[in-house]
Design a protein that fits this description.
heterodimer, A: 8-stranded antiparallel beta sheet, 25 strands, B: 4-stranded mixed beta sheet, 1 helix, 4 strands
């Protein structure tokens, strides 16, 4: 009976909170403390254990702290090109967008008055936050007084396939956290919204604070999942993540609550477009399940490029702006070994399957290339398009008479 | 930006089809998941009409 269980000894090791403490050893457990915490020895293994954290979360050996469990999902960040690396259309050149024009890949400008701000990858050439090489930069072009119905926003439409697991519009709607790095020449309170993007029927305005001008600040905003509304779960628009550069009074909503209305800013926000030359830069945008922000999800460049190409692709080299006369680089070259009359075409395949049948544009190889034309025998001819699908289309011309060769660049767009 | 549109009918050895030509040179598929086609439908709803189609483009494969 030498191995009999010693109940009196066990009772001595139960503290006032009812927790079992093991003193001076055991496998992996080296000591107990006066507060009822057990300290594991180096190399100890926890098996079938549940770890309960304090309010400060878990602190790791690199001094980083995680206050909540990381999302278990492979696709953690629902934002594409959140680190602003990819700029297929403009290759780093500045644009003054018209409304609903795409700028850096996946990032759309929407506005009620043109010419009030410009958008450029790495505008102003400041040093990005540690770990990032690119950012999206907006610059105010005038001291514009925002009218009551005005809006000036940068946003990303997220496809329903990429948010369907959030179960928004149901009782099981999941909480998400939006995080990003932002920098502005202005200080104060700034605004944005999370929105049902298909009909703008549901909106969650939020605010964030920039305390130091021209200093990168990391922002985290937690948004309770919306149990109301109808949210797309296929290849349409589900969630819009919107940052407001200016918004009129009739389109401002109270931050921190879902509303059944279309808002494009938060009450009390600073209007960046109202200060001539004001800058607003952003990168590291992440939208993830959970109540706290986790480190930015790094994706391989080719993976993120392919993610972007589901919505926009081109024949030019990735870092050559659309509309550049790039010679033979990026052109489709059709050799026509006959003379006579007729129409000719060739099939072009997209790099990845696109979200929907895309809009296609052919450009001849004149300088600069002309949209809607293909090059034949010294001049551009009106382009023709057909059998446009998510994987391919044909491009050609009805006027290939006596052609020896046709040249063209192309773009395909299936943005949301 | 205000566009105008034109119908382009075509025929290939695999069948007939239609593409909407936009005034900026774009070719728009007849597909309601395409946002440019959605804009075209809205343009029609506003009472606009596309330019008359040219003769059917009968293409050859090279």
């Amino acid at each position: 009976m030498s191995n009999a269980f010693n109940l009196s000894q066990l009772a001595n090791n139960v503290n006032t909170s009812g927790l079992l403490q093991v003193a001076g050893g055991g496998t992996g457990v080296t000591t107990s403390t006066g507060t009822g915490n057990n300290v594991l020895s180096a190399g100890a293994t926890l098996t079938n254990a549940t770890i309960t954290t304090s309010s400060t979360g878990l602190t790791f050996s690199d001094s980083s702290t995680q206050t909540a469990a990381a999302s278990p999902y492979v696709l953690k960040n629902r934002i594409i090109n959140g680190d602003m690396r990819i700029d297929q259309r403009n290759a780093g050149a500045s644009v003054t967008p018209t409304s609903n024009q795409y700028t850096l890949d996946r990032w759309q400008a929407s506005l009620s008055q043109t010419g009030k701000f410009s958008v450029q990858q790495n505008a102003g050439s400041v040093t990005p936050p540690a770990g990032f090489t690119n950012y999206l930069g907006c610059t105010s072009l005038s001291p514009y007084t925002v009218l009551s119905g005005d809006l000036f926003i940068m946003r990303q439409h997220i496809e329903g396939y990429n948010t369907s697991d959030l179960a928004w519009g149901t009782a099981n709607a999941k909480t998400v956290t939006l995080s990003f790095w932002v920098r502005s020449s202005l200080t104060g309170t700034f605004g944005g919204v999370i929105q049902e993007g298909n009909a703008a029927s549901r909106t969650y305005p939020f605010t964030y604070t920039i305390s130091s001008a021209n200093t990168w600040t990391q922002i985290s905003v937690t948004i309770p999942g919306d149990t109301s509304g109808t949210w797309n779960t296929t290849n349409g628009i589900s969630i819009d993540v919107t940052f407001s550069l200016g918004c009129g009074s009739t389109l401002l909503g109270t931050s921190g609550a879902w509303a059944g209305a279309a808002y494009y800013g938060a009450t009390g926000q600073t209007n960046i477009v109202s200060t001539n030359g004001a800058t607003w830069y952003i990168t590291g945008v992440q939208l993830e399940i959970g109540t706290s922000a986790t480190p930015f999800e790094r994706r391989l460049y080719n993976q993120e490029l392919a993610n972007c190409q589901r919505y926009y692709a081109k024949s030019w080299d990735t870092n050559t702006a659309v509309g550049t006369a790039a010679g033979a680089q990026g052109t489709i070259d059709i050799v026509i070994p006959v003379t006579g009359t007729g129409a000719y075409r060739t099939t072009v395949f997209w790099p990845v399957e696109m979200r929907a049948d895309p809009t296609v544009v052919a450009y001849d190889n004149s300088s600069p290339p002309v949209a809607g034309t293909v090059y034949k025998g010294g001049s551009g001819k009106t382009a023709a398009y057909g059998n446009i699908g998510t994987r391919s289309a044909w491009i050609g011309t009805a006027d290939a008479t006596s052609a020896n060769e046709l040249y063209f660049y192309w773009t395909s767009t299936a943005e949301l | 930006m205000k566009y105008t549109y034109k119908i382009q009918n075509y025929e290939t050895p695999n069948g007939k089809g239609t593409t909407i030509l936009r005034s900026d040179g774009a070719g728009i598929p007849v597909n309601e998941n395409n946002t440019d086609y959605q804009a075209y439908l809205k343009w029609l709803e506003e009472g606009n009409e596309p330019l008359p189609a040219d003769e059917v483009i009968n293409t050859s494969t090279i």
